[in-house]
Write a structure and sequence with these properties.
The chain is of the alpha/beta class and about 350 residues long. It has helices spanning about 1-25, 25-40, 50-70, 75-100, 115-135, 145-170, 185, 260-265, 285-295, 305-310, 325-330, 350-355; strands at about 200-205, 210-215, 230-240, 270-275, 300-305, 315-320, 335-340, 345-350. The chain starts with a helix and ends with a helix.
């Protein structure tokens, strides 16, 4: 029994450490996933706090996993892990049963799991933690109290430093589709065997005080101006197999709305794309752009912030991109990408680029 409990304890502890480290490698990714949950629940007022929540969650996972391995403090750690796994099971269960969340983010973007797989994993972990909790008196802490406190403080400091580092310098391990060496056009192609969802557009109208809905292609024969349009929504008729392109959409438009994506990819190489969802005044834009212009002929700022560019970077070449695309491409704003056609030759945080 003791051997079984030891194997179980190490398995749970290492899994929590592994899960936390993967997410700590990209805390902004977890933050965006939390925003997705809050958006679905209509709790957008929490969106400003998701990064702080992600940093705390990652720290708790890693430090609790380490505390479980050293068995200090053992009982309190098990109760903490039980609380965490109940919370995670609720999230993955909601994602699985509602179908509104495609991936739960349990292992970040490095190991994408389906909601069903994540939910099953959390159920198994819940059972394992309950077993350890019921048998916690059979395991006694052997590590000295002072050493245990030192290990936990060191763990918290290490996780904090690591997350601060990646927030400034990009993830240490880049698991995103926009990593160095990737071809954006290739990543936009549907994978072999992909079956997309079959979607029906439902139009909602008000007729004589009642709301009625019709398929966009099958309106009633007596359809006239007495039907007052209210809304439209997409309804999934047949579910696909979940295989989608790594980059669902990539578009670069001029300030006037003209699609320039292919023209940009056809530029003489190398050229530079500088991604920044918002134009922050705290960023040393003048220094960064001066250094880029000295080395490269074609430098473009890709942003979703039209007003910010007009106010601060009016003389620069500006391209407008979707904010979700920019968040995926660049975890640090701004991020410098040296391009060869559609291939990313180099990708650096502006801090690392200036320090070269």
């Amino acid at each position: 029994m003791q051997t079984f409990l030891k194997i179980l304890r190490w398995s749970v502890g290492l899994l929590f450490i592994f899960s936390g480290l993967i997410k700590a490698n990209d805390p902004l990714g977890l933050s965006y996933k939390m925003q997705e949950f809050f958006d679905v629940w209509g709790m957008n007022f929490f969106s400003d706090y998701t990064l702080a929540l992600a940093l705390v969650m990652n720290t708790l996972e890693i430090v609790a996993g380490i505390a479980l391995l050293i068995q200090f403090p053992y009982k309190q750690t098990l109760w903490l892990l039980l609380g965490l796994i109940v919370f995670f099971t609720f999230l993955t269960g909601y994602a699985f049963l509602s179908g509104k969340i495609k991936t739960c983010g349990c292992f970040g973007d490095c190991i994408p799991l389906t909601p069903k797989t994540s939910f099953i994993k959390d159920i198994i972990l819940f059972i394992a933690i309950v077993i350890l909790l019921f048998n916690q008196k059979k395991n006694k802490t052997t590590i000295p109290k002072g050493l245990g406190i030192f290990v936990l403080i060191l763990s918290i400091a290490g996780v904090g430093y690591g997350q601060d580092y990646v927030l400034k310098h990009l993830p240490i391990i880049d698991c995103l589709p926009y990593k160095t060496g990737n071809d954006i056009i290739e990543k936009m192609k549907q994978p072999a065997g992909a079956i997309p969802d079959s979607i029906s557009i439902q139009m909602e109208f008000e007729k004589e005080g009642k709301l009625v809905s019709y398929d966009a292609n099958h309106l009633p024969e007596n359809f006239d101006s007495t039907y007052v349009y209210k809304n439209r929504k997409e309804v999934v008729v047949t579910k696909g197999n979940g295989l989608v392109a790594a980059i669902p959409e990539f578009g670069l438009n001029t300030m006037n709305g003209e699609d320039s994506t292919q023209a940009i990819f056809a530029l003489p190489i190398p050229y530079v794309l500088v991604f920044a969802g918002k134009i922050e005044n705290a960023v040393p834009w003048e220094e960064l752009l001066k250094k880029l212009h000295e080395k490269y002929k074609n430098v473009y700022i890709v942003t979703a912030d039209k007003e910010g560019t007009k106010n601060s970077l009016a003389k620069e070449s500006i391209l407008i991109g979707d904010i979700t695309m920019i968040k995926t491409a660049a975890r640090v704003w701004p991020t410098v990408m040296i391009m060869n056609g559609a291939t990313i030759m180099q990708k650096k945080s502006y801090i690392d680029y200036l320090d070269k």
